[in-house]
Amino acid sequence: MSAPTTTDQEDLRSRMPNPLRFVPEMAAIAEGVHKAVGNGSIPQTTISLLQLRAGQILGSTYFTVRETGNLRQAGEPEERITAVATWRDAPYFTGEERIALELVEAVLTPNPSGERVPDELYARASAQYDDKALWSLVLAIGHIGFFTPAALIAKPIPGRAPGQNYSE
């Protein structure tokens, strides 16, 4: 069995070109959602943790690399970043972070036997967060949802800044 090879960052290409060339209105939508999510009602670290978990669930290298980088840049320990995939058993997360991770999993994971976000989960979330913060979590999950088709279909180049993550 041969060892896997890595692709040089210079050789990576997206499937599609930068969407702003074709749909410039997308920038205003993204900016608005980003501004709303960053309203200060929940820590940016919590947002990055839930968005990293979303990237893992969705199988998106782009989201996973982006949020891992954001967490590292914010000074988060490697143990916390690595443990996001197994957060339920990891001792590294606060109650608020656990609820955020549980909510993103509930929203993104089909539940054939009932509601994705049952009343019990909502009750625990609303006990941890006020209405503004809970809406901010909803928007943080929605932010990922908005960009999921682009991440999975267009495949922006992981590790590159927005605007520089598409091949032209």
List keywords for this structure.
single chain; 168 residues; mainly alpha; 7 helices; globular
Can you put this structure into words, describing what you see?
The chain is mostly helical. Helices cover 57% and strands 0% of the residues. It contains 7 helices and no strands. It has helices spanning 25-37, 44-58, 61-73, 78-83, 95-108, 119-128, 131-154. The chain is globular, with a radius of gyration of 17 Å. The relative contact order is 0.19.
Roughly how many Å apart are the termini?
Answer: 35 Å
Biggest β-sheet, characterized? none
What fraction, in percent, of the residue positions are helical? 55-70%
What is the overall number of helices? 7
Q: Quickly give the structural class.
A: mainly alpha
List the topology elements.
Elements: H1 25-37, H2 44-58, H3 61-73, H4 78-83, H5 95-108, H6 119-128, H7 131-154
